[in-house]
Amino acid sequence: MKPTPESLPATVEDLEAGTVLIINKPLTWTSFDVVAKLKSTLRRHFGIKKLKIGHAGTLDPLATGVLVVCVGKATKTIDQWMATQKSYTAQVKLGFTTPSFDAETQEIPFVGAQIPIDTAKIETVLTAFRGDILQVPPLYSALKIGGQTLYKMARKGHSVDIPPRPVTIHRLDLLSYRVNPPCEAVLEIAVVCSKGTYIRSLANDIGASLGCGGYLVALERTASGEKTLSDAWELATLLDIWKEGKENA
Fold this sequence. Notes:
By secondary structure, the protein is an alpha+beta fold. The protein has helices at 12-17, 31-46, 78-82, 120-127, 150-155, 199-210, 235-248, and strands at 19-25, 53-55, 63-71, 86-94, 96-97, 108-109, 131-135, 144-145, 148-149, 165-180, 184-193, 214-224, 227-228, 233-234. The protein folds into two domains: 5-83 and 226-248, Alpha-Beta Plaits; 86-224, Pseudouridine synthase, CATH 3.30.2350.
């Protein structure tokens, strides 16, 4: 059910008592960008100088979809939101890899790639990724090892030994598969997974298991816990409501 303006906090007291905003994160925005924009807009609209606000579960800039933003006393629930399972739809381009496991970095043709001609092999490979697995996070990520942020080390050309982490893939379904001869294909998957799962790593690992390489070209988070895209505000719409409300006050 789409949210309505009536569901938004009407007073500073309402806002600070605890507000959870479900945002459909726009493409190319970072999660921090969304939080920063909402914070500045809310401060102006309600005429306040300080405001507690944060998000529960980072989405990469090239991803879209459900971003949970907690305001006021609701920030105390961020850890609870982060612990919920997440749902995604993802597109994986086969026949190529990238250092970042997504389209942020230059693609590299996979030498000797054998693109599957149908879905039989893909379905077999996906089976191995369902359930409890060990996953190596991408080098191009905000994780820290030894106090150093991985993506900063990657951009300096440093190699890092990243230990695998346990994650759970509750569901992994093949939605579609299209082949573009002679050496390229795109598969679309639906994923329901635990906290801490990197869909970029999953895309890379699926490509490796298929023997043709693969990287993430599109990602949408369709749910965070019980909140889905149908519960989400388009960011521009939400900002316009508060902008108009301020102008009419």
